[in-house]
C-alpha cells in the first residue's frame, strides 16, 4: 500500500482502492459456491486459487521496488519493468542528492519525520484510531458471523430464500472496489489547493481526514441500526451499507496511518493496528455464545449493545479535529509573536 506514494496528489485514493480490492476478493467465494452447486468439488477450486498465488510472486520480484520508496519522490525515480535504459537511483544516492537542496516543505516536515516508533505508539491519535477501527471491525465480523442464522430465522428455514440472500450479499461485496476510492477522494480533496500559510502538508492531510473518519463512523451507526431490525427486505439495504462502510473502514485505516505518522513507521503501525483490532474482534465469540445461550438465538440485545459501543468511534474524528485546531492555534501564536 506504500505504492500510493508514487501517485502524488492521488496517494490516498490509490491506497483506498487497494483496500477495496482486498474486500471485493471475498466475492470469489460466490463463484466457488456456484461451481459447487453445479457439481464441481471444492478441492479443484481451491487448488486453482492457490496456483493463482504465483502471480503475487511475479509482481513482488519484477514490479515492486527492492528498497524503500522515498518521500517526497526525487526526479527520475522509477520502479518496476522499464523499456530501454533507465537511471536507477539507490536510496543512498537519493538521500545524498536530496540533502544538497532541501525544500521549504521538507524543512517543515522534519520534526514529524524524527518521531520515533515509541512516540507514535504513545500518541492519542494512535490509540483513538485503534479504538475507531476495533469497534467497527467487531460490528462487521459479528454481522457476517450471524448472517446465515439470521437469514434462517427470517425466512423460516426456506433454503431457496437463504441461498438467494446469500448470493446477493456475496455480489454486493464486488462493489467494494468501487466504493473505496470515494473515501480516498475525501482524503485527497485538498491536494493541489493552496494551503494556509505556515500549514504543513501533514496538518492539511489530517484536517482532511476528519470528514472521512466521521462519515465512516456515521455509516457504521446506520448499518448497525439496520442490522438490529429483523426485516428480511431491509437486508438488501443493510448489505449495501455493509459493503460501503467496510470499504471506507479498511481504506480509511490505511490512509489515516499514512498521513498521520511518519512513512518510515507505516508498515509497523499498520500491522500493529490490524493485529490489535483482530484481538479485540475475538469478543465476537463471546457474543455468539451469548446469542446461542441465554438469548436463545435472538441477537437483538447484542446488536443494540454493539450499536452503543460503536458510538465511541466518534471520539476519533473529534480528537483529530481538536488536534488540528490546537496546531492552528500554536501557528497563529507563533506568527503573532
From TrEMBL:
TM helices/strands, residue ranges: 12-32, 38-58, 125-144, 164-187, 208-232, 244-263, 270-294, 300-322
Subcellular location: Membrane
Coiled-coil spans in chain: none
Keywords, alphabetical: Membrane, Transmembrane, Transmembrane helix
SUPFAM superfamilies membership: MFS general substrate transporter
InterPro entries for the chain: MFS_trans_sf (IPR036259), SLC43A3 (IPR027197)
Gene3D superfamilies xref list: MFS general substrate transporter like domains (1.20.1250.20)
UniProt keyword annotation of Cytoplasm present: no
Membrane-topology descriptor: Multi-pass membrane protein
UniProt GO cellular component terms: membrane
Record's protein name: Solute carrier family 43 member 3
